[in-house]
From TrEMBL:
<dbReference type="Pfam" id="PF00072">
    <property type="entry name" value="Response_reg"/>
</dbReference>
<protein>
    <submittedName>
        <fullName>Two-component system response regulator</fullName>
    </submittedName>
</protein>
<feature type="domain" description="Response regulatory">
    <location>
        <begin position="3"/>
        <end position="119"/>
    </location>
</feature>
<dbReference type="InterPro" id="IPR050595">
    <property type="entry name" value="Bact_response_regulator"/>
</dbReference>
<feature type="modified residue" description="4-aspartylphosphate">
    <location>
        <position position="52"/>
    </location>
</feature>
<keyword id="KW-0597">Phosphoprotein</keyword>
<dbReference type="InterPro" id="IPR011006">
    <property type="entry name" value="CheY-like_superfamily"/>
</dbReference>
<dbReference type="InterPro" id="IPR001789">
    <property type="entry name" value="Sig_transdc_resp-reg_receiver"/>
</dbReference>
């Protein structure tokens, strides 16, 4: 069980990610625009960030670079979840400092596995 920050401006995607995370008993924090991202991350101390790349008026890549350049937030893993699936886009996103890339639409199984890589699931059998 962990705290996950979702940075997503699409309400349907936001609801899906929120619901999937709460099924696994994670605490969810939401940002619909990425504004004041450093302050939000410092205040909420997430264990993982799910970052959309194409946000309204701001680049998720810029947000990732800002978070990874900050001493207090650089250790937090970031999974990008985006519809930008071209190889050139993937390379640009990878260079931003994100820890994992998922392309939309993302399968539920892939989503759970990606989150579990960074935050072990409560429901995991021993």
């Amino acid at each position: 069980m962990g705290r996950v920050l979702i940075v997503e401006d699409n309400e349907l995607n936001l609801k899906l990610f929120h619901d999937l995370l709460t099924i696994q008993e994670h605490e969810v924090v939401i940002s619909r625009n990425g504004v004041n991202i450093i302050d939000l991350v410092k205040d909420t101390k997430p264990d993982l960030i799910l970052m959309d790349i194409h946000l309204n008026g701001i680049s998720g890549i810029d947000l990732i670079q800002t978070l990874k350049a900050n001493q207090e937030t650089k250790h937090i893993p970031i999974i990008t979840v985006t519809a930008f699936a071209m190889k050139v886009d993937q390379a640009k996103i990878s260079k931003s400092g994100c820890d994992m890339y998922l392309s939309k639409p993302v399968s539920i199984d892939k989503f759970f596995k990606a989150v579990e890589k960074f935050i072990p699931s409560v429901t995991k059998k021993e």
